[in-house]
Amino acid sequence: MGRTLVLEASPRGEESYSIRVANAFIHAYCKQHSDEEILRINLFEKELPTFDAAAAEGKVAILYGKEGSDRAKNRWHQIEDVIAEFKSADRYVLAVPMWNFSIPYVLKHYIDTVTQPTHTFVRNESGYEGLLHSRKALAVYASGGIYAEGHPMDFQKPYVRHFLRFVGITDITEIEVGPMMGPHEIREEAVQKSIQKAETLALGF
Ligand SMILES: Cc1cc2nc3c(=O)[nH]c(=O)nc-3n(C[C@H](O)[C@H](O)[C@H](O)COP(=O)(O)O)c2cc1C
């Protein structure tokens, strides 16, 4: 038994293509692992602590082994709650729409909240080291267009991958959903293909 944290970065609920594919994956996965706990967070509904001057001060204080002011400590308690929830998972499923060639701002806010020294990464002589070992992630990427690997305007897939690897999650499975633009039939055909892929990948996840 384990816990899967599902991070939905689309505000479109059941109409969201990335969430539809993520749901198909989770459904297929749970058929095999009926005792898996699924913790679902829609990032448009979650209240995250503002990453303000106090938060930045707290981060720098940790990096340099200092104590930090009271306002930094207060803000940091809120940030640590989000980090604890993030770290409580064994598996991650991310439903990620492309917004302006990158990711929706709520996911960036979440990443800014959980990517913290001593909690999810450390800095040592050889550079940075992620601390979330032995976890795996599925990232579902939806986009209006199609962005082949290495496309110069794709800041969605490379950024999500980089974030996951940076915090130590190197076992990453990916599914693209697109093109999500144009006639309904084209979009439905594309999403059905991705759903099939999700159901297959869930068997070996
Ligand atoms: C604010 C916004 C910005 C978008 N920017 C892009 C973009 O830069 N490139 C692209 O291919 N599609 C873009 N799209 C289309 C979405 O990626 C597409 O509708 C996708 O299905 C959204 O994911 P979802 O269905 O899970 O919400 C954008 C959509 C919105 C709402």
TL;DR of this structure?
With 205 residues, the chain is α/β, with parallel strands linked by helices.
Explain what the structure shows.
Strand 6 (136-142), helix 5 and strand 7 form a beta-alpha-beta unit. The protein has 205 residues and is α/β, with parallel strands linked by helices. Helix 1 packs parallel to helix 6 (184-203) and helix 2 crosses helix 3 (70-87). It is built from six helices and seven strands. The protein has one domain: 3-Layer(aba) Sandwich (Rossmann fold). Helices cover 41% and strands 20% of the residues. The strands form two sheets. The protein has a five-stranded parallel sheet with strand order 2-1-3-6-7, with helices on both faces. It has a two-stranded antiparallel sheet with strand order 4-5. It has helices at residues 17-32, 53-63, 70-87, 105-114, 157-166, 184-203, and strands at 3-8, 37-42, 91-97, 121-124, 127-130, 136-142, 171-177. It is globular. Flavin mononucleotide binds at residues 10, 12, 16-19, 97-101, 142-145, 180.
